[in-house]
Amino acid sequence: MSSALNKLTIQQAHDGLKKKEFSSVELTKACLARIKKRNSELNAFITVCEELALDEAKKADEMIKKKKPFDGSRSKQKMLLGIPFCVKDAICVAGARSTGAAKILDNYIPPFDATAIKKIREQGAVLLGKNNCDAFGHGPSNENSMYGPVKNPYDLTKVAGGSCGGSAAAVADNMCIFSIAEDTGGSIRQPASFCGVVGLRPSYGRNSRYGIMPMASSLDTVGPMTKTVEDAAILMEIMAGRDERDATTVGDKSIKSVKSIKNLRVGVPREYFESEGMDKEVKKIVEKKIKSVETHRNASIKIIDVSLPMTKYAIPVYYIIVPSEDSSNLGRLDGIRYGVRAEADNLYDVYAKSRAVGFPEEVKRRIMIGTYALSAGYYDAYYRKAQKVRTLIIQDFNRVFEQVDILLTPVSPFPAFGIGEKKDDVLAMYLADVFVGPAAVAGLPAISVPAGKTKAGLPVGLQIIGPRLREDLVLKFASLCEKTK
């Protein structure tokens, strides 16, 4: 059984550890063995913390053996105790190199955990390492990493998606039990779709952003990438809640359980299915999945055609707001306070040379675009106007959610594309986020669940979007979708 331990879900691993069917060390070694076997091909990890992982696993086994109190009760074992996981490299983890996939932070080891990671590690979860990603989250293909692209486990010639391609590939290839990632404009959902796993972007403010290397502060969220919807729900219960270090977090900690989804009004926005560049096979797979959910015998679901006319403006809005906030946030990376410092004769050259070699091309591009959009004479024409249109997009969603309870859309217009296929076409890359961008701009919860595979065997995801702070409904409906064929 030990050879298959890395294939377990959180719930299965928890049950097995509690019953002492295997140890955390055995479970961790199974994951590490898979990483050693496959990471040279997939490039899903930038840093593997083998020694730390085994040490943490041994401590977890000792706690289980001694039956120490966990959640205030000697009989209740913490849900994540002894379970191996990994983290997107743009999220700070104490004692583990965290580069953000950019060479400017090649030697950076944070002295603290991001709040979401702290909550998970306090449960006794075992850290395997840090996942490759597009540098600072900039990209939909994981080709903007300065540590090389991540390859798709289903086809090594295809991208794993971005920016959290390493997390998606690690979960899909059973290198870990789960991964914690970050979604600004689709970075969790799109790679989840490309790699056939579950990826949840929570509502903005549901989980703390403290310790997340900031990209666009008004859009960044941290969420789970898992093998099942059940696992995503488990992690959200642990991560969610108010954090005094993040003023944008909400006080409602609980992710309430929806007991029934009968008489549910499900909206299908036509704009998401009439998009230019929509792959016919992807459209067919998603529509088939929606039909199977509609006819599910244990649910009373009414499918309603709806319209979200402001959807077409989400990508232009996103690519003004995000670079603008990028240009501000990345100013802290100067080669002085932390990270890699270039040799130079004066302070200006230290800044210039450190950033020249430490930032990839896409990061530099976004900094320049954002600095321009925020500059005197252009702020009102670009950033302020984008924020006004963003409000219209939010109002668009609010109007539709008066008619329906939830929305179903594709995650991506196409399945995973070839490595290098779109790399030189910046606009084509930006349009890869056309279906995941709107929910991000509006701050809504959205999840990608597997919908099927193309004839070439590439996964396709279904996106479920809910009203703000209704992760409960999104997860419950995602669970139903997961069960339908």
UniProtKB/TrEMBL annotation:
> What is this protein identified as?
Glutamyl-tRNA(Gln) amidotransferase subunit A
Give the multimer and partner information: Heterotrimer of A, B and C subunits.
- Superkingdom of the source? Bacteria
Recorded catalytic activity of this chain's protein: L-glutamyl-tRNA(Gln) + L-glutamine + ATP + H2O = L-glutaminyl-tRNA(Gln) + L-glutamate + ADP + phosphate + H(+)
Signal sequence: where? Answer: none
Family assignment from sequence similarity = Belongs to the amidase family. GatA subfamily.
Q: Does the keyword Iron apply?
A: no
Q: Which Pfam families match?
A: Amidase
Biological process GO terms, please?
A: translation
| Location of the Amidase domain | 26-475
Active site per the UniProt annotation: K88, S163, S187
- InterPro entries xref list: Amidase, Amidase_dom, AS_sf, GatA
Q: Which UniProt keywords apply?
A: ATP-binding, Ligase, Nucleotide-binding, Protein biosynthesis, Transferase
Q: Which GO terms describe its cellular component?
A: glutamyl-tRNA(Gln) amidotransferase complex
| EC number of the protein | 6.3.5.7
Summary of the function given for this chain in its UniProt record: Allows the formation of correctly charged Gln-tRNA(Gln) through the transamidation of misacylated Glu-tRNA(Gln) in organisms which lack glutaminyl-tRNA synthetase. The reaction takes place in the presence of glutamine and ATP through an activated gamma-phospho-Glu-tRNA(Gln).
Q: Which GO terms describe its molecular function?
A: ATP binding; glutaminyl-tRNA synthase (glutamine-hydrolyzing) activity; transferase activity
- Identify which top EC class this enzyme belongs to: ligase
Q: Which organism is it from?
A: Candidatus Magasanikbacteria bacterium RIFCSPLOWO2_12_FULL_43_12
